[in-house]
Backbone:
């Protein structure tokens, strides 16, 4: 596989990942790597296997293959244990606890942390990124708008103080202006806090602007990879995903 | 007038017990979306444990807390060894499991302790408290115990991290796993707590209705009515529903239908709520897009 040369020991290393739902196989041997501190994006059409890849990484579905995070094999671990290694997943559909308040949702994000004092400070940190959530802190999360719930999902993940953030279609259903804001915040989180990000997006143009590296997935396989700069200039990607 | 006040207050005392059992039902319902038909028999069985301990010479309050511990472990065990291993999602099959548990507890209690009706002691003094004539000291004590239990539970779910995690696990298991909550443990904890609440209700009601393997049958029916009136997904509603059912049962029993038809009040309430307002007073209306 075409792993970037600078990546001697990647933070996340996925080799020959297979997964699916029941008898339906969706991933047919996906391999990719993600360097610590980088933003890597998985691109591909609907049904290519992007969401399935994220689900397999954190054991929401049983993965086959080899997944290594920070030198440890995680492909046989339970979701709850993978979270404890510092992998936060913002799932498709946002995964809001709709009957709980905004603040309770955030508190749950920090559920596995033991450093109580730092958790309290992190509320202010995420409210700093998303002031709208501070205004809504006692509101039932199910009553937030779609954009606010997406901010809440990202914030909930940040409350873990993750080393790796898995983002599944954060732009889904959001107004373009809000998507721009959200992506600027993701860049800030990555640069200021050195949180590595694995981003799954249908909005390929925005994803490639944000990411350092990109992998193109088609029907459960990686068909192209490289720096975002190179992938952006690939003719096939331009024609199929960028539209120019 | 005096009798009326007495009936209302005594209704509140038994209503508190219905409220506790209703709350246990609501807790299990939130996690499984089903009514635990065995809730009453689990409480009855725990009460027998308390009776055995007291008869063996253990002081009342020690037996009381040991029994709560026993019930908690019993609840954990049922979730861990029975419910967790049932892969079926068919409502009918799960209901049959609950009914199976009911029959098992009932028969085992009969086999171990016989079906002879037993007197169960009250920890409260014989003469009435505070110089009032409306409530026996046991009724007053039962109200007190119920209030303490409800307050502790409310505080647990409202203010503790574990309580929050349990609410989260019941609502959204997938997202709960993604923040690191061990959902199966939370479910087991919920079963344990529900069983413990039931055991307290059993020990509070046994001095009134006497202890026998069928002691909780009527009470479970009142608790069903209470949970439905309050709204099956509303813990606060279960408490209000319990008190309401207790008072209605007593007042209607004394003035309208007579003592023999009191249980009928519960059935009429259940059917009435299901017909008129299926979501109950405080429950949320479930809307499904088809």
Residues:
């Amino acid at each position: 596989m075409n792993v970037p040369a600078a990546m001697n020991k990647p933070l996340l290393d996925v080799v020959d990942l297979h997964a699916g739902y029941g008898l339906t196989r969706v991933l047919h041997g996906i391999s990719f790597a993600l360097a610590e501190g980088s933003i890597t994006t998985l691109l591909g059409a609907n049904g290519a296997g992007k969401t399935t890849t994220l689900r397999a990484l954190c054991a929401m579905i049983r993965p086959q293959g080899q997944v290594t995070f920070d030198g440890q094999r995680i492909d046989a671990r339970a979701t709850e244990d993978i979270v404890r290694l510092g992998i936060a997943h913002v799932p498709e559909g946002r995964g809001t606890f709709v009957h709980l308040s905004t603040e309770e949702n955030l508190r749950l994000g920090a559920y596995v942390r033991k450093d109580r004092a730092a958790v309290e400070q992190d509320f202010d940190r995420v409210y700093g990124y998303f002031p709208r959530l501070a205004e809504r802190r006692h509101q039932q999360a199910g009553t937030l708008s779609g954009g606010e719930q997406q901010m809440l999902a990202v914030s909930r993940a940040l409350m873990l103080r993750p080393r790796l953030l898995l983002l599944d279609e954060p732009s889904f259903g959001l107004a373009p202006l809000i998507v721009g804001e959200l992506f600027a915040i993701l860049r800030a989180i990555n640069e200021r806090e050195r949180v590595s990000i694995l981003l799954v997006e249908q909005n390929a143009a925005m994803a490639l602007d944000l990411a350092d590296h990109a992998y193109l997935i088609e029907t459960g396989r990686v068909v192209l990879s490289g720096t975002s700069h190179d992938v952006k200039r690939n003719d096939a990607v331009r024609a199929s995903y960028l539209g120019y | 007038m005096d009798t009326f006040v007495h009936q209302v207050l005594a209704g509140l005392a038994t209503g508190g017990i219905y409220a506790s059992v209703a709350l246990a039902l609501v807790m299990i319902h939130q996690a499984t979306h089903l009514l635990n038909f065995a809730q009453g028999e689990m409480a009855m069985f725990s009460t027998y444990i308390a009776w055995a301990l007291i008869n063996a010479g253990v002081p009342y309050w020690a037996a009381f807390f040991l029994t709560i511990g026993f019930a908690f472990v019993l609840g954990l065990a049922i979730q861990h060894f029975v419910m967790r291993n049932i892969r079926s999602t068919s409502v009918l099959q799960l209901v049959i499991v609950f009914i199976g548990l009911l029959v098992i507890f009932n028969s085992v209690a009969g086999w171990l302790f016989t079906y002879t009706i037993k007197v169960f002691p009250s920890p409260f003094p014989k003469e009435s408290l505070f110089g009032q004539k409306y409530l026996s000291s046991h009724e007053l004590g039962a109200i007190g115990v119920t209030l303490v239990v409800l307050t502790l539970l409310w505080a647990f779910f409202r203010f503790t991290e574990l309580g929050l995690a349990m609410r989260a696990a019941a609502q959204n298991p997938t997202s709960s796993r993604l923040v690191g909550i061990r959902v199966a443990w939370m479910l087991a904890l919920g079963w344990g707590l529900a069983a413990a609440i039931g055991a307290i209700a059993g020990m509070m009601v046994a001095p009134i209705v006497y202890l026998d393997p069928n002691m909780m049958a009527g009470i479970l029916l009142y608790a069903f009515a209470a949970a439905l009136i309050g709204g099956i997904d509303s813990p606060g509603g279960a408490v209000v529903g319990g008190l309401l059912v207790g008072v209605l049962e007593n007042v209607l029993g004394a003035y309208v239908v007579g003592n023999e038809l009191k249980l009928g009040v519960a059935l009429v309430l259940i059917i009435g709520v299901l017909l008129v307002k299926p979501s109950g007073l405080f429950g949320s209306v479930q809307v499904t897009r088809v």
